[in-house]
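Thread title: Can someone regenerate the structure for this chain?

I was given the following input by a collaborator and told the matching structure tokens would be attached. They weren't. Posting the sequence so someone can regenerate them.
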Amino acid sequence: MDSLFGLSFFEADDFLKLLTRLLLNTFFLLLIVRYLYYNITRRKDYLFTYLLIGTTVFLLSFLLESVKIQLGFALGLFAVFGILRYRTQQIPIKEMTYLFIVIGLSIVNALANKKISYAELLLTNGVIYLMAFLLEKQFILKHESTKNIRYEKIEMIKPQNYKALVEDLEERTGLKINRVEIGNIDFSKDIAKIRIYYYDQQNDINLADNEGNLPAAS
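Best answer:
Regenerated them for you:
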């Protein structure tokens, strides 16, 4: 069967090209997202998101490759996904950088034409992975992590009580805290949303639940 409803049923060369590019893209996505990013952050939510976005962008770009707006199409994807943020919270700058890498590599791997060899594609993917690896593992000796906390000692959020606030959080979390940011404050419930920053070389602990809630102060 040569065609089905006006579409070619099977083209060996095109199928082999899609499969080869898909395997190449998936391999480097796994290297960057699963074996580099996830091993450092342990963020399963972003692992899920990055892999699906990378694969979807690749397939979308590859299947629309014949459209004569390749450059505009690629820039449009960067614009749409590059400003993507979830309704619940903004994406941190580091996660945005990994999102940019995932989208960029997927577009490059999908839209590379006959003037670009597979050796060039491998070099491009390899250089980006190597840069990310060196920055994460070698050049940046201390990786700053964050946790969001609901804090019940509302009187401690005053600027003059900052030192006492940090000491209280360190005692209750067991972490050596670098800095603290005060977010939304609910005076009706005497609760403040706080973000703490600390270096993840320390033995991290699971704070109460996934939302980072501390036990109520006595």
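The helical segments are 12-41, 44-63, 70-82, 93-111, 118-139, 162-173.
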